[in-house]
Amino acid sequence: MRIKAIHIDGYGIFRDFSLEDLSPELNIFFGNNEAGKTTLMHFINCILFGFDRSTARDFHAPLKGGTHGGRLVLSTDSAGELVVKRHTDKRISAPPVVTTIGGTTLPETAFSVLLGNLSKQSYTQYFSFGLDELGGLAESELQSGLYSAGYTGRGRSLPEVEKVLEKKMGELWKPGGRKNRLKQLFSQLEALEVQIEELKQRPEEYARLQEELFEVEREISALETKVEELNRQRLHYQNLAELWPTWLELQEINLRVEQRSESAPDQSVITQYAEKITALYLGLDSFLELLSVYQGYKQELTGAVDRVNRSLEELGMNWSPEEALAFPTDIVTEQEIRRLAKELGQAEEEVRSKKEAVARQQEVVAERRKPVERLEEDLAESGEVETDLDPAAVKSLTLEAEELLQRQAGITADLALLEKEQEFLEREKAAQRQVQQGGGRFGAYLPWGAVLAGGLIALVAGLWPLALVFILGGLVGLWFVIGRGSRKENIAQMQSIQAKEAELLQRQESLEAERGKIAVRLGELAQVLPVEGEILDHRSLQEARDFLVKLEEAARLRRELKRARQDLADSESLLRQKEEELAEAQGLLAQKQAEWQSYLTRLGVSPLLDGEGVASFLSSVRAVQGEIRRQEEIRAKLVQAKSQLETTKSEVNRILTALGKTEVSEYSAVAEAVSRLREEVTSAQELQDLYTERERLVANIAVRMGLAEAKFGEVQRVYSGLDEAKIETERDKWQREYQGTTKHLDELKAQLGRIQERISALEVDDRLAALRLEYNLKLEEVQRGAREWAKYALIRYALDKAKERYEREKQPEVMAKASQYFERVTQGRYRRVVKPIDQEGIYVERANRERLNPEELSRGTVEELYLCLRLALAQKFSRDAEALPLIMDDILVNMDAERFKEACALIGQVAQEQQVLFFTCHRWVAEALQAEALDSRLIELAAGSLASGEPAQGELPFTG
């Protein structure tokens, strides 16, 4: 996979940025700090693998505007050329839109397969990295990437296998260990041997146990009868003790009942009216409140009568209250008045609006008449261009002629460059012949040295294009001479030169043919366009352009005049329409005024009133009607309140009469009478409550003590002759005797259970055979465990031997390639990169086989080590999937001069197989890298754009 072009709509400091024709091998991005190098690197990562809003370092919101995102044009081996787009706004990331050149959209899963199903984290760790990432590799990725083949198969490393073996062997047997299976089995065998010996010597005790069983059962039966009687006595005195506070409370209540019965009123009469008296008492607050309201109504009614009389006088119509109530102020009348007033107002507003619209449209007509007159004058002054050609056709032919002349000039320049290349090839052929004829190296150097000197002279003279051709040709020639080897290599070089000559000749013929076709087409255009001459050149092209300007100006004036006339006609038509609308609105206004006056006359109101006047009159009538209605409402409430007060007073007098008391005559005396009646009811209810509580306590004691009748006298008989101390003494005595007897009974039952269990064991004891069988099974399990432990020990020994041979003979492919790279970069100081099969991490090995871990190396050497590992991993990845672009951000600055040179050469070598994008802020780094790659491109950035003079199209140096 190679990146052919980059287009950024908006990302960081970049906006509307395009870069095309990237080299398929090495691309060097050079620029000062803040030129946008790292931002461009992050942009490529985001388009391939998605944006991440959580990190500003990766997300890079557009600082100069534009849609956030862009696209890459990719060239792939399996899917051809693809365009990958991503844009994001509020989401964390956006899915890629991947299309082929034919317009087919690829699913996201297919694009992920092209990327080797890598995560963004893995790609930026191994394929797109800077100095921060170069200091190490994630161990989990190291295992899956650098050692993907594994050491033991199916993804399990040898250290894991060794740990499993150690665990298995330790579970079976380990000297000094506590929890291992064989040791536990030996302990179990010893215990089984002891149990077997005991069963062989079983005692003869069955008969003795049967006798003991009979005696214990007889004693238990006698004790159970005694325990039942003791428990009855214990519970009797326990109930007496627990009910003693209740008995004291019952005696007190009985005394209070006797005292109240002597002074209480006649319970039958007061009880008959108790509920009614209680209801009257609970409603006493309402009665007093109603009485207050009644008095307020009387005062309010007097005020309401005065207000109605004053309102009728203010209305000025000499109406009675009945006539005022009869005047229509309902919602229908009000809505009708509002409707007529609204329609009248709308008609007046419509007339005013139409008048204003007519005036505005008259101004528009006057304004649109001015451009018509002006354009007619301009068209008359400019004169008419007489031609049958359409301006669009003339413009199209003029643009075609301009492109043909530009292409003609380009072909002429290409032919001149081809001629120079042919001259260089002739010199190289002469040099090769001289070498083949034994002319010596010095003779081969002379012609190319002369070419290089000529280029330097042209450079001093200021002839830049010629100097560039001579210098590049001289350098290439010297490179060929210096780099040639044996005669066999010289013959191969001569054949390559001859093939290049044939290619140049073919290109020359193609360019000559294209130039002829362009000349013919220019002649045809000279006959069509109004120019002088048989073949169109730059001078006649300018004539065509001038003619096109006049032609387009005349056409423009005619188009604008046509539009202005049409606008004027439309405005005049619209003015007539608005004048007609004004006449209609004035007629409607006269009609609405007549309807308004007619309705007011029927209603009995002055027709001279406007809408606000009628609304004010209706409001006044409605206010008078409201006062009259409130007067009637107050009178009705007063009658209702008096009726309720009279009802309550009658009820109280009826009760007083029944109780033989004096009746009340005033409403104010009712409350005091009800309060006195309530006190008598309360006293009668308290006495009844004492009766009820006495019955409840008697029933409670009777139930707990098991009495036949629930009467006070029966309870008094039970407690006669007892006090609290005597009850406590008896309860404790029976409790102690009960507990002692129960404990003895439990001991006998436990003894009975043991005897029965032993008898049952003696009757069905077949454990001896079971123990012997278990002993044999355990012994067989010990033998199996010993064989299994021996198997694991043998596997462990074989793995130790295989590990030694693997480290000596079969390092993984990635590690082997990394070793070659690292040995080259360090100029032989370190010969191998090693991953011990039974250890974590990696080591480097010197020529004397001394091993060092990365922590013991200098920073520059560590960076060289991890660079070599990444390059080896990338090479292996490219054989299993698409070769992804390698992106590096100034990773060479910590290396010394010799290792820096070797690292540049290594990157140039890798770039021949896999595209490399290298970002640096050091010009000497960029130039050193460019010198090591045959097909490279140097791109200079400045503040989010290409530096001045940097072409967007690729300019590749001539390589011969």
Q: What's the total number of strands?
A: 15
Q: Give the overall silhouette.
A: flat
Beta-strand fraction estimate? 5-15%
- Unreliable parts: 139-156, 951-960
Q: What structural class do the secondary elements suggest?
A: alpha/beta
Distance between the termini: 27 Å
Supply Rg.
Answer: 60 Å
Largest sheet: 6 strands, antiparallel
Strand order of the largest sheet: 2-1-4-5-6-7
Please give the share of residues in helix.
55-70%
Determine the number of helices (DSSP H or I, runs of at least 4 residues): 29
The average pLDDT is 78
Which helices and strands, and how do they pair?
Layout: E1 2-11, E2 14-19, E3 26-30, H1 37-49, H2 56-59, E4 69-76, E5 80-87, E6 97-100, E7 105-106, H3 108-114, H4 120-126, E8 128-130, H5 131-134, H6 139-146, H7 158-172, H8 181-200, H9 206-242, H10 244-263, H11 267-272, H12 274-282, H13 284-315, H14 321-326, H15 331-382, H16 391-436, H17 441-461, H18 464-483, H19 487-528, H20 538-603, H21 611-658, H22 670-705, H23 712-718, H24 724-763, H25 767-809, H26 813-825, E9 830-834, E10 843-846, E11 851-852, H27 859-880, E12 886-889, H28 897-911, E13 916-920, H29 923-931, E14 936-942, E15 945-946
Parallel strand pairs: 3-13, 3-14, 8-12, 12-13
Antiparallel strand pairs: 1-2, 1-4, 4-5, 5-6, 6-7, 9-10, 10-11, 14-15
Helix pairs in contact: 7-25, 8-25, 9-24, 10-22, 12-22, 13-21, 15-20, 15-21, 16-17, 16-18, 16-19, 16-20, 17-18, 26-27
